[in-house]
């Protein structure tokens, strides 16, 4: 990342810190935090049982369910689902899971045009190169307003001024025009309630509502998103909002529990009134079943990277794909392999533990990374200078 981008990112992070610090120590947030910690621990420990219940609940609600063991499986399922649609435009909502499977580039290779509906993600999409996000809920937090205006003008052949509202309105108009005839929407989920068979999605812009109103709504979610009840799922989403944005709740919280339907004519059930005629949930494993339980506690708020000294120094070079910072490095071991984990910044971490101190569910990321370093060194992935020092100690009883 450029020095100017790092400086802008730090300013954005300081804004989040200031806003969240005003509410995260309140009694209601502390109670919510303890509740969510219990929910996530219970859910991970009982994942098989909850997964089986989720499948039954979704089927009861008329939602199709698929399981993808790998990202290739997930992509193949998506390809099969969208194959029959003539319009090659897809509405996409923000999702780290969709970034994990490289959805946009994979669909682009098959001539599908994926349009990001989240403003930050759309700005990065228009940027075309060097467009990796820097925060789960603020993907373009490293770009200042002048840079964003230039990106929009270059990509859309416009003449927008570096004024926030002008930029927003220009991007919004372009997105709505592109999605006018789109029939497919794809999103992730913040949490999934297995008892009710419901997917919870939070957003401020209203864009997920656009995505969910397409004829086919595909939801790709990691198996770690499943929690017991709707109340549990909403608690997870609320806590994520507090730590990600510094607000008690987002503008919108969508609960998707089935396709669009009505029974207002002689109580006869009809699908596709205004929203999706078909809803498909794809549960993604992709290494999660092999990951340490603590890695799966994550609620995706990004507060760890906001406080991480390494991330604030080097930016999104520290992390894997859309999973940023130390926890992203840890997940890369299970999603990909030891080499990817090493290259994602396994030895960048100072093991200071600030990520854990500022994590709402207290993921011991520094301890996880310390253990992964041991495993990584055993298979030959470690800084070569460390190996030289080790050899010197072994041969000379000195590191020199």
Q: Layout of helices and strands, plus pairs?
A:
Elements: H1 3-21, H2 27-45, H3 47-60, E1 64-68, H4 71-82, E2 89-92, H5 96-100, H6 103-108, E3 113-116, H7 119-127, H8 145-156, H9 164-178, E4 184-187, E5 191-193, E6 198-203, H10 207-212, E7 216-222, E8 226-227, H11 230-245, E9 252-256, E10 261-262, E11 270-271, E12 278-284, H12 303-307, H13 309-314, E13 319-320, E14 323-324, H14 325-335, H15 338-343, H16 354-357, H17 365-378, H18 384-396
Parallel strand pairs: 1-12, 2-3, 2-4, 4-7, 5-8, 7-12
Antiparallel strand pairs: 5-6, 6-9, 10-11, 13-14
Task: Please give a structural write-up.
Strand 10 and strand 11 (270-271) form a beta hairpin. Strands 1-12-7-4-2-3 form a six-stranded parallel β-sheet. The protein has helices at residues 3-21, 27-45, 47-60, 71-82, 96-100, 103-108, 119-127, 145-156, 164-178, 207-212, 230-245, 303-307, 309-314, 325-335, 338-343, 354-357, 365-378, 384-396, and strands spanning 64-68, 89-92, 113-116, 184-187, 191-193, 198-203, 216-222, 226-227, 252-256, 261-262, 270-271, 278-284, 319-320, 323-324. With 400 residues, the chain is α/β, with parallel strands linked by helices. It is globular.
Name the features.
400 residues, 6-stranded parallel beta sheet, 4-stranded mixed beta sheet, 18 helices, alpha/beta, single chain, 48% helix, 14 strands
């Amino acid at each position: 990342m450029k020095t100017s981008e790092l400086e802008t990112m730090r300013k954005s992070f300081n804004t989040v810190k200031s806003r969240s610090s005003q509410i995260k120590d309140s009694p209601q947030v502390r109670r919510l935090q303890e509740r969510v910690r219990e929910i996530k621990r219970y859910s991970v420990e009982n994942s098989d049982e909850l997964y089986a219940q989720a499948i039954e609940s979704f089927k009861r609600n008329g939602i199709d369910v698929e399981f993808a063991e790998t990202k290739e499986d997930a992509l193949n399922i998506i390809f099969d689902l969208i194959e029959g649609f003539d319009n090659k435009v897809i509405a996409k909502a923000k999702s780290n899971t969709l970034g994990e499977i490289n959805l946009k580039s994979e669909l682009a290779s098959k001539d599908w045009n994926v349009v990001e509906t989240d403003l930050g993600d759309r700005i990065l999409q228009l940027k075309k190169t060097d467009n990796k996000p820097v925060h789960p809920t603020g993907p373009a937090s490293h770009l200042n307003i002048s840079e964003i205006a230039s990106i929009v003008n270059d990509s859309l052949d416009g003449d927008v001024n570096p004024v926030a509202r002008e930029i927003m309105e220009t991007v919004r108009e372009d997105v709505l025009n592109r999605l006018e005839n789109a029939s497919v929407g794809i999103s992730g989920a913040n949490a999934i309630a297995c008892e009710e068979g419901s997917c919870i999605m939070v957003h401020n812009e209203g864009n997920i509502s656009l995505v969910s109103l397409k004829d086919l709504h595909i939801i790709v979610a990691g198996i770690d998103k499943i929690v017991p009840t709707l109340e549990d799922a909403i608690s997870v989403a609320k806590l994520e909002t507090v730590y990600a944005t510094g607000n008690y709740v987002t503008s919108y919280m969508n609960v998707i529990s089935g396709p669009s339907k009505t029974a207002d004519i002689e109580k006869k059930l009809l699908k596709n009134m205004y929203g999706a005629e078909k809803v498909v949930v794809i549960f993604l494993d992709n290494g999660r079943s092999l990951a340490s339980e603590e890695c799966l506690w994550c609620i995706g708020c990004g507060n760890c990277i906001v406080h991480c000294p390494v991330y604030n120094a080097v930016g999104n070079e520290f992390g894997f794909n859309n999973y940023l910072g130390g926890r992203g490095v840890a997940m890369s071991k299970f999603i990909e392999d030891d080499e990817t984990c090493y290259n994602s910044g396994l030895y960048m971490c100072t093991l200071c533990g600030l990520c854990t101190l500022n994590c709402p569910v207290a993921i011991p990321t520094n301890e996880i990374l310390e253990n992964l370093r041991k495993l990584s060194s055993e298979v030959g992935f470690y800084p070569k200078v460390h190996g030289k020092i080790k050899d010197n100690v072994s041969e000379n009883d000195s590191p020199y």
